[in-house]
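> forwarded from #structure-qc
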């Protein structure tokens, strides 16, 4: 069976996948509270460890009988009228996610599998790729240093994220002139009218040739182009090779469902801007059935 773990039934991605599985009569369950899932470990005479889960309404199952789709594990937290507050709540949430990590680390069929300590994020996933595929970046608390690096890179645009507030903006001139709205490849529209030389500290910046994105959604061994702002040939072998290389590198880390935001230079060479391991449903609504079909295969077959 397939188990969907999400922050709530109102999550559009979980709700859409739930609807797909229901329409296709696929045995599944949706759960937003790990406290409702009893699980235990069994070590056999040969020293092999197996997990058993008790899923409400479905009885007790061996771990290899369940495919688990985890939607944004960081949004999952203990719930209920007696939930603690303050430091106690943070401790409980950490313990909750640790239990979820342990469960998913032991099961053979998981999308996306956690890493050695937690679930992968954009920064960690970028390290899995060939550096030649990545946009140059700079992490700094000194805006002047950032401007100096920008001058050395001579890139047309600077894509800036303030790490404390998570505000993102695109700057085309050092004074921040040329205000416009755009999607930074993470599903958030921001107004670009603030200079880099602000009082905000802790900046991450990407030196980019363009703000026109191609977003590729990868699921299993398939991928779907869900945005193509520069209008490049996404069937060209050079483009498909880049996508295959990215998908293969992340798949080795157990990441089978993600979106990658790419930008092209004047010669249509692609570079990675961001990797999004929990793509918003709005990004793939138009190809949802194809995506869900691939997710179903991953969860039922274990990605073979």
């Amino acid at each position: 069976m397939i188990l969907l773990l999400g922050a709530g039934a109102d999550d559009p991605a979980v709700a859409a996948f739930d609807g797909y599985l229901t329409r296709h009569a696929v045995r599944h369950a949706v759960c937003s509270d790990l406290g409702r899932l009893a699980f235990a470990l069994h070590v056999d005479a040969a020293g092999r460890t197996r997990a058993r889960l008790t899923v409400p309404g479905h009885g007790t199952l061996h771990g290899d009988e369940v495919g688990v789709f985890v939607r944004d594990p960081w949004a999952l937290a203990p719930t209920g009228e007696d939930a603690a507050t303050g430091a106690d709540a943070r401790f409980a949430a950490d313990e909750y996610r640790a239990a979820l990590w342990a469960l998913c680390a032991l099961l053979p069929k998981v999308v996306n599998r956690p890493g050695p300590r937690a679930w992968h994020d954009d920064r960690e996933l970028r390290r899995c790729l060939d550096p030649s595929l990545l946009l140059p970046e700079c992490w700094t608390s000194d805006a002047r240093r950032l401007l100096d690096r920008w001058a050395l890179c001579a890139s047309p645009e600077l894509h800036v994220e303030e790490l404390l507030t998570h505000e993102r903006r695109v700057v085309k001139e050092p004074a921040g002139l040329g205000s416009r709205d755009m999607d930074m490849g993470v599903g958030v529209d921001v107004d670009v009218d603030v200079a880099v030389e602000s009082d905000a500290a802790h900046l991450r910046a990407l030196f980019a040739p363009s703000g026109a994105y191609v977003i590729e959604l990868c699921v299993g061994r398939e991928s779907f182009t869900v945005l193509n702002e520069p209008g490049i040939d996404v069937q060209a072998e050079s483009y498909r090779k880049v996508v295959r290389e990215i998908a293969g590198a992340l798949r080795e880390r157990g990441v089978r469902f993600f979106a990658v935001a790419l930008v092209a230079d004047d010669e249509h060479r692609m570079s990675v801007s961001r990797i999004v391991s929990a793509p918003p449903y709005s990004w793939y609504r138009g190809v949802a059935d194809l995506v869900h079909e691939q997710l179903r295969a991953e969860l039922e077959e274990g990605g073979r």
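QC bot note: The chain has a mean pLDDT of 83. Residues 86-106 form the longest helix (21 residues).
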